[in-house]
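Q: Give me a backbone?
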Amino acid sequence: MDEVVVKLLNKQPLPSGDLPRTRGKFAGVMHPIIGHKERQFVCMIDSEKPDVMIPINKSVPKILARSSATFEERSITTKTQADEERRRLKIDGAFTIDRENSKDLDDALSIEKLPDSGLYRVGVHIADVSYFVQPETPLDEEALLRCSSYYPGHGFENVPMLTRELSENHCSLLPDRRRLCLSIFLDMSDDGRLVGNAKIQETIVRSNCQLTYAKAQQIINSQDFSFENLPKDTASKIRQLSNLAQKMRKWRLREAAYDHWSSKDELGNYEAQELVEEMMIAANEEIAKFLHSQLEKRAPLRTQLPPKKHRLSSWLEQFGKFIKFCLFPHAVYSNEELQEMTKDVDISGFPKFRVKKSVWFELCSAAESLDKVKLRQLVFNEKHHSQLAIAKSQFERIQQRAQYVCEEDLDDYIVAWEPVLDLEAATVAVDEDDELTIHNLDIWWRMDSSGKQEGNFSLQRKYYKTRQIKFYEGDFVCVRVKEEMYMGRSNLGTSERKKSEMDSDLESEVQVTMTQLEANRSLASNSSYGPRSQSSSIWLGHGIVGEVKFAQDSEIGSVKITLCQSASEFPKELLKGGSLSTLTVIHRPPLHRRMSAVLRKGLKNAPERVKAICLGHELSQGDFELPPFSDLSISRKDSRCQLEPLNDCQNEAVKVALGKPFSLIQGPPGTGKTVTGAHIAYWFAHQNKINFSQSEQKLVESDGSSSQVIYCGPSNKSVDVVAKKLLQIPELKIIRVYSDLREQAEFPLPNKRKPLRSSSDDDETQELDEKLKEVALHHVIRADTCPFAHELKEYERKFKQDKKKGVRTEDAHVDSYRDLIEQAEKWAFQSNGVQIILCTCAVAAKSSIIKSCEENIKQCIVDECGMCLELESLLPIAFLAPQQVVLIGDHKQLQPIIHDKKAQNLGLNVSMFERLSGKAKMLRLQYRMHEEICKFPSEHFYNNQLETDASVKNQGTHLQSFWPVENVPMAFCHVMGEEEVTPIKTALSNEQSKANDKEVRKAVHVANCLVNNYRVSSSKIVILSPYREQQERIRKELAKTPQCKDILVTTIAKSQGSEWDYVILSLVRSLSGDEHCPEGSSHWVREHLGFLEDDHLMNVGLTRARKGLCIIGNKNLLSYNSMWKNLIESFEKRHCVVNETDWPKK
């Protein structure tokens, strides 16, 4: 630790052993712990913490880069010793037990017999650091940075979390020194049971001796302990504590308590170590109870759940026969649980119990000499028995990771999500360039009660209607005011202007321009904004739109904005009256507006069951009756249904979904989760149509119009796939609802301003599938069966005529047309017999759906939920409040796409499905991949639970002569190409997108070989890459060959949900041999592997192929990532790794 100079304001000497009670201030650093020329390390800068350096030498811990500036002078004030003496309880006769040469003695123990009750009062005393380290002081910040003390061992000096003066003196419970402590008093019976509640008190403790574990063990063993001048009764107290500790340990661990040695380094001192261990565990438990009682929702409690059922089942299959010989399972499970676990275990072929020769000889020797201690150590130490040691090691591998958890309420949930969502919304809004700028706008500023600046401005109805200006709560704004607009205000006369005059001038003064400013131009520095004279300066502030009042019956609309930050201090002159400003508005994307609304309003008004889903609480089981069939396959009930029948696992998943208020179904690649989801939707609709009479137990037919199912997904593609499946079910009434953007592409609104930049979202711009037109809402309301269709068509005919004549359609006609659409949609939802509504999660939060269907929706299914933002999944759940919710997805495939790195690091990329995945029912039988292709994903992503259906196995291996190894339709082609980077963003690729021409040629070569040599249809081949630039170059190269020009080339991300016979995967990233980093730090690997670091993306790429998979990449670079290294090793074991020049064979 650095030595600092402290100027004492009170120079009176301190009595020995007393607590410091002087005042002083830091003067500066005198002797740094490491001189500038003493030790130097080659370091890299931590990408996430620029002030932290990471030494290349891995034996050296991370180093904080301190500023060279001298320390600021800070005063230090402490309470007087007398204050603490008066209010704290005094404890004498405690003792410490620590390792040899320990100096920071932070805990002590004491025990006394209570005369009245016969109980023992055990005191666990912890040094009270909080007295010396006040919150948010430099000392506190330094301790937070270090987190804990570092004990390197091997004779090296420790690095304490606090200064040595504190950790080894004032906060160290040294013998015969009085020290401030926080003490936990436990009253115990003679059998080691805690009686009553623990007492927690602030104390002053004086330790009367300092013991090592070895010395304490000698006392416990009643051996000679004349080495220490022990105070009276200390030896008997230590033995009594040890006796209680062993009884407490037996209650806690049951039979596992007999093994004292397998988890300890110093075998001879185990009882002394367990004495301290048990008392600390008991004290920690009582502190946890206290914190939970005081901070029920926020107390961080450490928990470790038992192994997952499927992992435990696998372990039992292999090691269940050893359980009755093992001690360790008794620490986790009761005897009854162990009996239940092992009742089906076959032990008929159990071999003889094995004992190592060396252990056997020691056992014989100990038995002959009647050394009972040695016998217990040899028998009960499971490390001595290879079969039990392996079983224990494998059990530890399947245990779940311990973690800290807090119980949160809905307010905590909302507060946690709001700022993270705002980060992402701002980034996406800036990327989309949906901006407008208003010049010469009068903004009136005031200070609210919390000290924040609020702005207010007004616009005339005619002005904002004709220019189609809209503001939404949560939009981002940038305000710019020239200095001459608020300095020398009297010359401008702004403060004297009346409100009516400003309103009348508004139309002539305000000029609106739509801009396509880049993201950083709108939100970064004031030097980027518009024309400005050399002599003027500009104040610039950023804020968020608050309340928006644009009422239909009002001629004036008003908008409030809240200032969040500014480039310079807010000019006080702006508070004196309105000032002409330039306002740039960046619209929050529609999806993010709706997610923000669900946080602000939707969740607060939602039923308790919706709040319970958010908080991960168990829902009380509702009264949901299942259909009276054991097999719920629709095709077996109605031969007209074209859906595949359900397998046993799918059938069980459907039953779980139908019978619970909330359920999750995990569908790995090829397991038929779409078919499963379609069945769930059908049976929900069936339940809604047939009411089970509680009194007569008879089926009563109803019209089904009042109860509906909503089926959602993150994208149009995901929802369309399910819609096509549902169309294969006879007499099922569905309706497909698209976004306004998709609808207006077919039926455009007159007078609507077109965006300057066309949408690049393929999901919204692609043409509507012909099969879905008949059920698409915007086509249904224009069909002959709709009572509003004729009038809608009349409006649209008139709009076309106006366009031909070049006449602007009257706004009143447009408003009437939109009102008519709203009425027609309400008819379609409520009076058309619709049973299932299909839409994206974002569309589910449209006002038209909420108004028409809020009371009707009884069940909600969210498909591909692993790709949805958590709040995106909540849109249909919170706004429509269904009675049953089913989440379907696979958190091992693609996560939600996050644009803001900070938001991603804060967990926005973790979907609700992933967060709650421990409750999911997994589909295990896959129908897509060849068994060899399935092996790696099953082992590394799905815990070896994926099974290949017999129908796939019976197909055999196709094109056997094409692959490096017969019957293994896979190849990893090692290509050492040169990686290129695109410098700018284009319509076809992103900025910094990557390409590799050598891999381009190889991918096209493999495709040519499949098409020309093996006569594979181009429609059955796909070429995937994580980078759009690579995708475009491959597409251009394929166009040169007529037979291959129709091969689909797309990104891995867009391939989820699709499958092909043959997949060629180009990974792009590459380095030459001399560019490789031998150690490969995590930062270096992230920089050079990019997207390939994402295991979810890897899983998707590997699981698209049905009959054959070819991966093209640089194995040397990929091996820096553990998962890719495992894949390459797996391919090498099967002799499927080839060099680019050796394969495919000519």
User: Anything to note?
Assistant: The two ends are 69 Å apart (CA to CA). The longest strand covers residues 199-212. The domain at 931-1139 is CATH 3.40.50.300 (Rossmann fold).
